[in-house]
Each structure stands twice: as C-alpha cells, then as structure tokens.
Amino acid sequence: MQTTYELPSNLQETLDALPKGLFDHIQRVRELAVGLAGVHKLDVVRVDFAAAAHDIARAEPEHVLLAEAQATGIPVTNVDADRPMLLHGPVGAGRLRNKLAVTDEEILEAVYWHTTALSTMGPIAKAVFLADKMDLSKASRYPHIGRVRELAADDLDQAIVEFLKGDLVRLLEEGKMAHPASLEALNGLLYSLKRSR
Question: pLDDT at position 139, please?
C-alpha cells in the first residue's frame, strides 16, 4: 500500500519551505495517518492531504500566530493567549482556505483541531489528530502513547480519549492549563462512548 500521495504544487512548495525537522515530522505523520486511514477505511488521499497540511503554520513565531488569529477572527482563549503555539492549527486552516484555496471542510477541520481535538471531529480529523500525537519523536512528552497506538488500531474515539486523559495528567503535573476544546473533546467522547455501550 502506498504510504503518501502526490500533493498539489502550492502545498508541496509550502512544505518544502519548512525547517527540516518539521518537514520530517510531517512526513512521519502522513505515513501514520495513511495507515490509520487504511485500517479504518477512510479516504486515504484526503487523510494524507490533511496530514501533510496539519503543521503548515507551526514554524511561525508565537506573536505572529496570535496576531493572525486576532486579525482573522479566530477565537483566542486564555489558554491560547498563554500558549499561542496552540493556534497553529486554526491559523494553518485559515491559510489553507484563504491562501491555498482549499475548500474541503473535513480537511480544514482536521488541520484546525489537530492540536486540541474536538468531540464532533469527523474521522479524517481524528486520524490526523492521532497520527500527530503518535509520531515517535513525541514519545518522551507522551509516555502513554503506546496504549494510544494499540487503541487506534481498533477505535479512534477510544484512542483519543486515552490520549486526552494522559495529556490532561501531564499538563496538570506541569502546572499548565488544559485547553477548553480538549476538555470538551474528552467529556464529549466519554459521553458518546458511554451511550454506545
């Protein structure tokens, strides 16, 4: 099975301009996301595109992300103001829509929420969210990722819940605020999973 797919030239040029470490991370996320797409019978080309685009704004300085979010009407929470790097997903989605003319709402959703999650994300967004977290370069930050990987092979929602629970513990131990969207995602998915039993 093919692990990544050819991208439109405007997106490929954007990726080629990124720092090497970030570019390499994106390539690993693409492979993981396409793998999840294959297992869960998702559109692999669209999942690959979303995974390729997920970090297009990640190399921007925090003040640029904050200013662009404010200028384009992206909601900025207290957590975002404290850690503006969390805005690289929403800013990236805005750039995809406005500068690269991407109109696929599921791809835009995947890029927008790949950092925080949201309980109502569609399957493409869920695959990209998990693939981003499952990159082995993040294993030291997310020691619970092995269990997340196991769950992701069977149930994207269960895997996201497992990730968010572990990440919430990490944030609290580090004295950091949890993003309201992540808390909403955790609560919403837990409720949904409980109702489906």
Answer: 85
